[in-house]
Amino acid sequence: MNKKQFLTSLEKGLKKLSHEEREDIMHDFEEHFSIGLTDGKTEEQISESLGSPKQISKELVATSRIEKVEATATTTNIFRAVWAVIGLGFFNFVIVFGPFVALLALVFAGWWTGVAFISSPLLLVFSVIINPGTFEFFDLFFSLMLCGIGLFIAMGMLYVTKVLKNLFVRYLKYNVSLVKGGLEHD
Q: Residue 144 contacts by C-beta under 8 Å, 6 or more apart in sequence?
């Protein structure tokens, strides 16, 4: 594969990145080719030593997505990072998607439990409005207790969500470095 074919294939794989990132990466790879040519290598030798442009673009997109999650951890950025890492190969689908779904379910269940407990006094008020003769102080105190527990659960889930997000981003970075390291040793 010559320089033009390599760079065209690489640029096609980098379409998901911003124009500035894409231009910077393309400039770096053009520099690789110019340095290699001055060292007496052919374009084919240089492109072979660099590796597959499709795999390089997948790794660069995954790394870029993970960096965006570290900068601003929005739900969209996290999902994009997960899909970019999964895109590195089928093995990553099994290794990344399973833990991601499990963590997502855990966080979702925790938040919903907290919200349900916090809203228990509202359900009591609604119940008393519908059935006025059913009010009991035990129900009031029990719903207030659940509300307090729900507040503690919500505060805990805030902390757990932040910690799990940071751990999962580290896991994604480790996974990307593992794929890169595995490809370098082949």
A: 121
Rounded distance between C-alpha atoms, residue 30 and residue 165, angstroms = 36
Give me 3's structure tokens.
């320089």
Calpha distance 182→186 (Å, rounded): 7
Q: How many angstroms separate the CA atoms of 8 and 30, rounded?
A: 11
Q: Which of 2, 5, 16 is nearest to 57 (CA)?
A: 16
Q: Is residue 101 part of a domain?
A: yes
pLDDT score recorded for residue 16: 83
Full-model pTM = 0.59
Confidence band (pLDDT; 50, 70, 90) for 121? very high
The confidence score (pLDDT) of residue 146 equals: 95
My answer on whether 81 and 150 are in the same domain is yes
Q: Is residue 56 part of a domain?
A: no
- The domain total for the chain is 2
CB 48 within 8 A of CB 32: no
What is the sign, positive or negative, of the torsion defined by CA atoms of 81, 50, 26, 15?
A: negative
98 shares its domain with 156:
yes
Q: Do 156 and 97 share a structural domain?
A: yes
